[in-house]
Amino acid sequence: MNYTLFSRYLFITVFTVFSCLKTTAQNKRPNIIYILVDDMGYGDVGVFFQNQRMKSDDRSKPYQITPYLDQMAATGAIFTQQYCNAPVCAPSRSSLLTGVNQGNAHVRNNQFDKALENNHTLGTVLKEAGYQTIAIGKWGLQGTDEKAAPYWPAHPLKRGFDTYFGYIRHMDGHEHYPYEGVYRGKKEVYDNYVNITDGLAKSYTTDLWTAVAKKQIVEHSKAATADKPFFMYLAYDAPHAVLELPTQAYPSGLGLEGGMQWTGKKGEMINTASGVPDTFVYPEYATATYDDDNNSATPEIAWPDTYKRYATANRRIDDGVGDILQLLKDLNIDENTLVVFSSDNGAAVESYLPAPFVGFKPTFFASNATFEGIKRDLLEGGVRMPVLAHWPKHIAAGKVITTPSMLSDWMATFADIAGVAAPARTDGVSLLPSLIAKGKQKESLVYVEYEGEGRTPDFKEFDASHRNKKRGQMQLIRLGNYKGVRFDIKSSEDNFEIFDVVNDPRELNNLAVKLGFEKMQEQMKSSVLQLRRADTAAIRPYDKALIPAVVVKGKFYQGVSQQFFEGDFPWVVSEKELKSTVQKFTKSISDTSKNTKKGMFLYTTFVKVPTDGKYNFSMQTSSRAFVRLHEANLFDADFGYHSGTELNEEIYLKAGYHPISVYLLKKSESAETIDLKWKLSAATDWKNLDRNDLFQTKNKIK
Prior knowledge:
Helix content is 17%, strand content 25%. The chain is α+β, with helices and mostly antiparallel strands.
């Protein structure tokens, strides 16, 4: 089996990749709603695991119910192997919004409130594609300069969204009654740049975000621009943090005339802003009991209040999703709206409740299903997500998608659906072939890096090998069915534990200690160096490790593969869903053609590195460009780039051949220029990256 990550560098004589949704894109592009919840585990959703507990009739196994999410799964698709990009909130959400994995990301580790980079986002891409863009709920990526409030540098309105309503700050999302601040103090909710918290008495945020989402959808349907599609990023701040309860039962009915409604009246802004905050428990949970000692001869005991609260928080989200799906039906736009649901990371151990409440453990409900690990861990329980997709008449009912993928793949997917090419910066692939069963699904790169504090929990339900394990620097990579994971990394030479997570989801059988996995071990060690770039704000012990060259059997010869993609592109685009109009060999990376058409050049070649060492690279262009070395982002001269600006990078390389891809946007009839230089760091003089350094091969990369 060939697990190579570098197929993009093979010269393919006939390049014919077609978008799966050309007919839809030419007709009426769908609305897109992405619903993200906070700290809900894979196993918290009925269809993923809770229903199994219910059907087991084992009274020692309490369970939750999520009827509307289950209905969403029954009429749509579930992803059983989709990963978050990081096991905590901020980096996971940043990778989702930018389509960039944690090897190339700007927000890494637990850098909550760090400003999301001023670059392509789901908002900017879909806005350029003609969508109205809406963000609701938790943001937490605005920037830490409070002097800038309310005009934070990375406010959603500055990252591609037309409107925003929600919690800007990460910590505000730890309290679900912003006006009362029941447990964590008063918080601030913003309508665009205006703090409107004073009017939000008794507004439980799950209800509030649902009401606002419904209001926005209805207003869009009545607007003069109703034919314009919308993209909604709806980010609930539950069940994370303090486990607070709603004021009352979910309003009867759903959709246009029932369910949650926005009233717009100060002090009763939504129709559940009455009664007593933090009091309502769903009846099926209020009286729930279980066999705590696994002995049917002894009386059952009531669920601790902490778990009644957790189950209620999840059920409230379920009601909200059902309410929104019904609204889409009532407005007759459900068949033209893709709805995606996911969590940002695995279930946690936090409840933020005072004594005498018991602490929360995700093992009570098996919130992470049979997986081990929790939020902050790179074991499956911390990173495997409960992902559902609903799009009637496009996605087959009851579809189960088992292909490994990541949250960062949704950027490429939504761009594909919207009929535009994703930015070249995007690490993900379009999941549209898997969703609608048309075209060939490309392989997603599943990679995570994260530095975590503390140790894995000492739960008796976990295998001894996974208990009390120091986290420290961690990495995860998937190669086919196999997952490599390592904890408390000290150097690039540390071994990965290797698991067949398809057949061994609890990660109990470490294949790395068995004969026959030596090559995979080395491939994993090489790949995790080749697909990332160092970030001084998130230092790793392998940042200065020499990046391995590729291994190829056969000869190299001088030359560059050049492809041209015709089109008036708004940015430097990814080639993954495009068809090239011209493909040939050239001697250098330069626009020497007489082509007067607009489009993009893609040059793929190998740089021959003469000796091990630290190298400096330099680039400037008359246009806009993007450069990858292996799978790592080397230069981003696209979003916000000023023509002629010189960019510099430092990188550690082993001697040998290293694949490089250079994307050059052609926006005018005249030839564009790009100047790439390099040198050993110790050297004085720069040299052009020219024909003497650039090579090709017809052989497969190992």
